[in-house]
Amino acid sequence: MKTLETEQIIKQKRRNFGEHLTSVKIFQEYIFPYIKKDIYNYIWIDLYAGEGNLILPILEYIPHTERINFFRERIFLFDIQSELVEKSITNAKYYGIPEKIARENIVQKDTLQQFPKNILGKKLPIFHITNPPYLYIGYIVKQGGRNLKYFDGVNEGYQDLYQIALINDLRNGIGKMIYIIPSNFLFGDSCSNKIRNDFLKFYDIQKVYFFENKIFEYTGTHVGIFFFERRECICDKKLRFIGIKIKNGDSIKREYILKPENNYRAGNNFEEFIKKYKAKREIKVKFYLTEKSILENKGNEVIEVINANKFNGKSYKREFIEVSVDFKKKILSNILFVRTVDTGTLSGRAGLYEIKEVFGVDGIFVSNTFRTHPIQIFFSPTLSINDQIYLKKYFNLLLEYFRKIDDSEFLTTFKYSETEYTRKYMGLTRVKELIQTFPILDLSEKNKMEFRNFIDEKDTEKILKFIKDHNAEEYSDLFLKL
Predict the structure, then answer these.
(1) How far apart are CA 37 and CA 61, in angstroms?
(2) Beta bridge partners of 250
């Protein structure tokens, strides 16, 4: 029986090593059907083996009389933690492998730091199946920097331990791999651009299973099973593959196209739109009503705000602040805020909202700038109230449109839920970029009226065609197709 103390030790080890153990069921259901015809054609390795559940179940399909020789010649497992090595050895014994032989091929080693060269150059090629450690570098720094050594030297610039695992395989010429890794490998922006650009010059993606349900006991990290194969040419090219998204027992199959000019990032429709169709006169955007700005604009004018840093579980604390006449005018003339995180209900999706309508106050004050609380937006030049209302409608219409055609994949998964969709987070950079496609500063009164009519009609096709005509010379019909 686990005590509270042993639970805390286990939890700390998970934090230190970034390991999340995989079940045999995952192997049997998603991986074995892909490799079953090839089990005699490769050496099977897992450099971050945990309990061995991604390799040892192969033995189930090997006749008992052949298992020992098969294991000795074709299975090699490694893990940094001695207790997990012992569990792998115990599991190998379950499949009929003598302990002495199991210990020869199941070894304790820090393979992130030092690739086991002894497994290279054998008669058969290597097939690496693994669930490597995931530990984001920002979290490592926050926890005291214990694992920063992995990001030194040639690994500088990578952002997560799983990325070090991938690049190690590339450097050592591994031809085929199946990786269970965070889906931000494909959907992340700055956190994944470098590894995608370095790695996907060498490898094709055969297919991916994306999981929108929790598959590990101790993490809500959004993961996928990625099937990689090294190609002969080293080149930047479009990658096409089939992805199967799985949630609540249902699966949706779709084709993905990754483009080198977009850093091989998935969710291309939104990316292409915000890059190609910026307004000729962009609206400048600033976020947050901060304590510093209030101190710099002291006065006797009173406004009512919510304090976004003081939430009691049901509502934000309402406060009165005193500011100058001009600063009060500025606060009152910027009526919108951004909700960066889905709340879990369709009426509370990420998007732009009116401060007075939602909170009944004049502004949203922050003493600390967190990205996930409501954030007031300040525009330059100042937009009329009517233009801001149409910006809100425009922003939310297009955001929902791209969420539909891209399945929200240009956003970051925030939290799993049992709702009909997975809750997402929209970064402030993307908020600003979508706002800056709004062409209101360029339009004549006649064009404004036409544009507003399209927005009132919620006619996305006409809105996008209008943006085409006013924001860019070229336009892709891609955006007119659901």
Answers:
(1) 11
(2) 247
In this prediction, residues 238-250 reach a mean pLDDT of: 88
For the ranges 10-14, 66-70, 406-410, 416-420, the lowest mean pLDDT is seen at 10-14
Q: Which of 130, 213, 141 is nearest to 177 (CA)?
A: 130
Contact (Cβ atoms closer than 8 angstroms) between residue 97 and residue 80: no
Residue 332: half-sphere exposure toward Cβ, Cα within 13 Å: 11
pTM score of the predicted model: 0.70
Residue type, 375: I
Question: Using an 8 Å Cβ cutoff, are 203 and 170 in contact?
Answer: yes
Give the pLDDT score at 216.
57
Which tokens belong to 312? 């009691």
- The domains found in the chain, sorted by start residue, are 4-268 (3.40.50.150), 284-480 (no CATH)
pLDDT, tens only, 154-198: 999 999 999 999 999 999 999 999 999 998 899 887 789 999 999
Residues 340, 75: Cα–Cα separation, whole Å: 47
Distance CA 396, CA 352 (A): 7
Task: Quickly count: other Cβ atoms within 10 Å of residue 389's Cβ.
Answer: 17
Per-residue confidence band for 215, with pLDDT thresholds at 50, 70 and 90: low
Length reported for the chain: 482
139: how many CB neighbours lie within 10 A of its CB?
Answer: 13
Residue 6 pLDDT exceeds 70: no
Which residues have a Cβ under 8 Å from the Cβ of 466 and sit 6 or more positions away?
A: 450, 451, 454
Interaxial angle between packed helices 385-405 and 445-456, expressed in degrees from 0 to 180 and rounded to the nearest 10: 50
Separation between Cα atoms, residue 147 and residue 167, nearest integer Å: 17
What residues have CB less than 8 Å from 470, skipping those under 6 apart? 279, 280, 439, 442, 443, 447
Which residue has 């590990």 as its token pair? 216
Q: Which distant-in-sequence residues (6+ apart) come within 8 Å of 138 by Cβ?
A: 159
At residue 198, the 3 state secondary structure works out as helix
What digits encode the pLDDT tens for the residues 332-367? Answer: 999 999 999 988 777 789 999 999 999 999 999 998
* Cα pseudo-dihedral 398, 404, 409, 411, rounded to 10: 40
Q: Are strands 75-79 and 106-108 parallel, antiparallel or unpaired?
A: parallel
H or E, element range at 169: helix 161-171
Say if residues 191 and 184 touch (Cβ distance below 8 Å): yes
| Per-residue pLDDT tens digits for 439-459 | 999 999 999 999 999 999 999
Up-side HSE of residue 148: CA atoms within 13 Å toward CB?
9
CA angle 50/71/49 to nearest 5° reads: 10
Task: Give the other-Cβ count within 10 Å of 66's Cβ.
Answer: 11
Q: Which of 39, 38, 135, 118 is nearest to 78 (CA)?
A: 118
Task: State which amino acid sits at residue 33.
Answer: P
